Amino acid sequence: MDRFSAICSLCLVVPLFGQAADSAVIHFSAKVQGPASNIYTADAQGRIVVLTNGRYWRDLQPALSSQGVLAFVSNRRDDTRIELEKYTEHYQLFIIRPESEAPVQLSADEGSAFMPAFSPQGELLAYKQLSDAGETLKMVDMASGQTSSLWRSEVINGYSWSPQGKLLTIAAVSDGHSRLLRYDVATEASHTLLSYTLEPADKQACVFDAPNWSPDGRYLAFICQSISPPHTRQLWLYDPQEQQAQVLSPESLYVQGSVDWHPDSQQMLVAALQEFSFSYDEQLRDKVYQGDMGIFAFSVAGEAKRLSDSQGMHREPRYSPDGNEIAYLYSPKLGEAHALELRVIAAEGEDGVSRTLFPKVAPSSTLAWR
Fold it and tell me: By C-alpha distance, which of 54, 63, 1 is closest to 31?
C-alpha cells in the first residue's frame, strides 16, 4: 500500500475483485520497479486494482474474455533474479480465472508467446509463438486446455477474430509475399483476401499489419506499410461484400500500433506520427525528434478528425465500451520514455481537457478496456 501510494497519492487500491461486475475497467501494465511491470486496472474514477504483483518480472499484453478470464504474457519464472537483458528472456502465456487470484501458465513453448486474443465468446484463446524457426499462430481451447497450431509463417503481424468467433483474419509475411487471409478454426480452411508480392519495383506493395474487424462484422480495418519510398504506413478498410479495399489515411500520417473500433462500427481510432523527423545531436549525444504522435478518428466514409490537442506522444488509443471516452498512453516528448501516463478524454476530442488515471505505465504496455 505504501509503495503504491508513493507512485500516485490520488489513487485508491481496492481488493482484486472489489469492483462491480458491470463496471468497465482499463487493463494495463504498470511500471513497478526497474524493468518490472504488473497488470493493473483503472476505472473512470481512477480507482486502481492490482491484478498481478511482483517486482521480479514483466507482465504484459493483458486480454480479457467475455467470461472474465484475464490472459497475459510474462517472463515470470522460479528464478526471481531480474535479467537486465530483457530481449533474451522467454515469455509464456498465463491466465487468471475470475474465481482465483493465482496465475496459471498455459504455454510452455520454445521461444516466447505473445499477443493473446480471446474469441468473442471467450471459448478460444489465440496467441503467437516466436521461435528461431519462425512464428506460429496457436489456439487454446479454454474448456479442455488443449493447444493446437493453426498457421505458420516467417512473420505474423497480427490477427483478429470475426464477431461470430469462428474465423481468424491473419496478417502474415512468407516467401516474399504479404498476405491478409481468413482462417476457419473448425475446418482449417484458409482464403486469401489480399496479397502483395514484396518487390521494391512494385510501388503499391505493402506489408499488412494489425487487422481488426468492426464489431458488426461489416468491415475489416488494417494498416499497410509500403516497402518503397516514401515508406508510408496508412490505415486501410476492406469491404468483404464488395471485396474491395480503400486507403483512409493520407500519406502525411504515419499510422502506429493497432486500430480500435467504436462500438457503432462506424469509426476507428489510430495513433499516427505527423510532421515527424529525427536527427542525432552530437553535442547532446542523443536523438532529437520533431513533430508529434496524435490520436485520429476515421469514419468508414473516410472522414478524418484529430482528437488530441496537446503535443507529445499519444499511444494505444482505445474507446470505452460505451464509446463515450477514449483512453490512451501519453508522454510529453517523442522518443524513448521511462514511463507513460494513462489518460482519458471525451470521444469528441481532447479540447484541452484530459484526466490522468495513472502516472507510471510501462512503456511497452498495451491497453484493453472492457
Answer: 54
Cα separation, 208 vs 195, in Å, equals 9
Mapped to the 3 state alphabet, what secondary structure does the chain carry?
Answer: CHHHHHHCCCCEEECCCCCCCCCCCEEEEEEEECCEEEEEEECCCCEEEECCCCCCCEEEEEEECCCCCEEEEECCCCCCCCCCCHHHCCCEEEEECCCCCCCEECCCCCCEEEEEEECCCCCEEEEEEEECCEEEEEEEECCCCCEEEEEEECEEEEEEECCCCCEEEEEEEECCEEEEEEEECCCCCEEEEEEEECCCCCCCCEEEEEEEECCCCCCEEEEEEECCCCCCEEEEEEECCCCEEEECCCCCEEEEEEEEECCCCCEEEEEEEEEEEEEEECCCCEEEEEEEEEEEEEECCCCEEECCCCCCEEEEEEECCCCCEEEEEEECCCCCCCCEEEEEEECCECCCCCEEEEEEECCCCCCEEC
Q: Are 221 and 239 in contact (CB under 8 A)?
A: no
d(CA 204, CA 225): 10
Residue 253's pLDDT band (boundaries 50, 70, 90)? very high
Q: For 346-364, write each residue's pLDDT tens digit.
A: 999 877 689 999 999 999 9
Residue 164: CB atoms within 10 A of its CB come to 11
Cα–Cα distance for residue pair 156/270, rounded to 1 Å: 20
pTM score: 0.90
Residue appearing with cell numbers 476492406: 238
Burial, 283: exposed, middle or buried (Cβ in 10 Å; 0-12, 13-18, 19+)?
exposed
pLDDT in tens, 205-223: 999 999 999 999 999 999 9
